[in-house]
TrEMBL record:
Keyword Membrane listed: yes
PANTHER family associated with the record: MAJOR FACILITATOR SUPERFAMILY (MFS) PROFILE DOMAIN-CONTAINING PROTEIN, MAJOR FACILITATOR SUPERFAMILY DOMAIN-CONTAINING PROTEIN 10
PROSITE patterns referenced in this protein's UniProt entry, alphabetically: MFS (PS50850), SUGAR_TRANSPORT_1 (PS00216)
Organism field: Rhodopseudomonas faecalis
Family under the similarity heading: Belongs to the major facilitator superfamily. TCR/Tet family.
Transmembrane segments: 21-42, 62-81, 93-112, 118-138, 150-173, 179-199, 231-255, 267-286, 298-316, 322-347, 368-389, 395-413
Compartments, as annotated in UniProt: Membrane
Protein name: DHA1 family tetracycline resistance protein-like MFS transporter
Length: 440
């Protein structure tokens, strides 16, 4: 099947199989990944700060460079891994990524200097590609009309991971700042072992695509997103949302410790609260919201809710009001799965890995831009020579980017072919019946 295949070919459901069990395997895989990442999230910025003589402004600049280096590695590695997963299957890419990530956490746990910590962060940019491949796995085993809901449920693994991970990481970091890295390494290696024994392959040999260098390099992968005007608009939506999201890992810890005086334990609990609400929204509300609202309203409400949450983050005068913004922020979670689902319906089955690799390349570009921009803005607005003391400035920019995502996303849904865009449940009784008949 080629990129020029008609839309009818694109939305053909995959062959029948143990879809529920396969999605369960991927859920656990992503959950263990998120537990590992979540545990080091409240610790890594403070570890960088300790190497920077505890100067917050200098640490912010260095941490921004860490994020940029990580994204640069992802930018080059992700399309290559996506193309390899289209050629050789999803399972080997997921397993190698998890195994490599575990070894990388060991390296960071032992890092004796900022240089070694930086090297470890660069390696993790290559090895942390299993999530993108996991989303291609979901597209392999899930009918097109159910992907948004499944993406939401699997996205709940992100929330659960961030409920437990940051809280545990904050507590472990209070004992020893290197301990979370050791535990994260154990979880990642356990994840690789789990997948080796129980994770089935999702892409049959007859549905695999030849390896193509033009889709395995970053520029070729991004060209795939420009092959269709609607797909290109959705890529812009994802890019703006990805840049906005990066404001959180780039400045959340530095911002809350600077402005509210939070310690590592409080930061970990706050991130766990973010994870709780993310799990509630993505695990329980995405499917019903898509059926009730349709993709147009889900995108408008989701991205505007996220923008309001960022506004509260930026302007909250105390930590209590900051906590109030967390559940409002996570309304954003209903828009992301809708966007991802729409994109999978615009490419054929044998290019789902290439699509996810391209999406990850776009995310990597955002990661190249975001950490530098947000940390520099944060440093500029808290420095002695700042024209205005406004530590929440990065969150104001992030909220504006989500409003751009909302506008462009609404346009993209309106431009979708009627056969591909889902409507609210009350507007599609005949379509729903036709869908059931087509599956029987």
């Amino acid at each position: 099947m080629s990129a020029g295949s008609p839309a009818a070919d694109v939305i053909t459901p995959p062959p029948a199989g143990p879809r529920r069990a396969a999605v369960g395997f991927i859920f656990v895989t992503i959950l263990l990944d998120m537990l590992s990442i979540g545990m080091i999230l409240p610790i890594l910025p403070k570890l960088v700060e300790s190497f920077a003589d505890n100067n917050t402004a200098d640490a912010a600049r260095i941490y921004g460079l860490f994020g940029t280096a990580w994204a640069l590695m992802q930018f080059f590695a992700s399309p290559l891994l996506g193309a390899l997963s289209d050629r050789f299957g999803r399972r080997p890419v997921i397993l190698l990524s998890n195994f490599g990530l575990g070894l990388d956490y060991v390296l960071m746990a032992l890092a004796p200097s900022l240089v070694w910590l930086f090297i470890g962060r660069m390696i993790s940019g290559v090895t942390s590609a299993s999530i993108a491949t996991s989303f291609a796995y979901i597209a392999d085993v899930t009918p097109a009309e159910k992907r948004a809901a499944v993406f939401g449920k699997v996205g709940a693994a992100f929330g659960i991971g961030f409920i437990v991970g940051p809280a545990v990481g904050g507590l472990l970091g209070g004992v020893d700042p290197r301990l979370p890295f050791w535990v994260a390494a154990a979880l990642s290696l356990a994840n690789a072992a789990y997948g080796f024994f129980v994770l089935p392959e999702s892409l049959p040999k007859e549905r695999r695509a030849p390896f193509r260098w033009r889709s395995a390099n970053p520029l070729g992968a991004v060209r795939l997103l420009g092959s269709n005007r609607t797909l290109g608009a959705l890529a812009v939506v994802r890019f703006c949302a990805d840049v906005a999201h990066i404001s959180l890992p780039a400045t959340f810890v530095l911002y809350t410790t600077y402005r509210y005086g939070w310690d590592q334990t409080t930061v970990g609990l706050a991130l766990a609260f973010v994870g709780l609400w993310t799990a509630i929204v993505q695990g329980g509300l995405v499917g019903p919201a898509l059926k009730k609202l349709g993709e147009f309203r889900a995108i408008v409400i989701g991205y505007s809710g996220g923008a309001l949450g960022f506004l509260i983050y930026a302007l909250a005068p105390n930590g209590t009001l900051f906590w109030v913004g967390i559940p409002i922020m996570t309304i954003w979670g209903i828009a992301g799965p809708a966007t991802s689902s729409l994109m999978t319906r615009l490419v054929p089955a044998d290019q789902q890995g290439a699509l996810q690799g391209a999406n990850t390349s776009v995310h990597s570009i955002a990661e190249l831009v975001g950490p530098f921009v947000f940390t520099m803005i944060f440093a500029a607005f808290i420095s002695a020579g700042a024209p205005l003391l406004l530590p929440g400035a990065p969150f104001l920019l992030a909220g504006a980017l989500l409003l751009v995502s909302m506008v462009v996303g609404a346009y993209a849904v309106r431009s979708m072919p009627p056969s591909l865009a889902l409507k609210p449940a009350q507007e599609q009784p005949v379509a729903a019946a036709d869908s059931k008949a087509a599956q029987s």
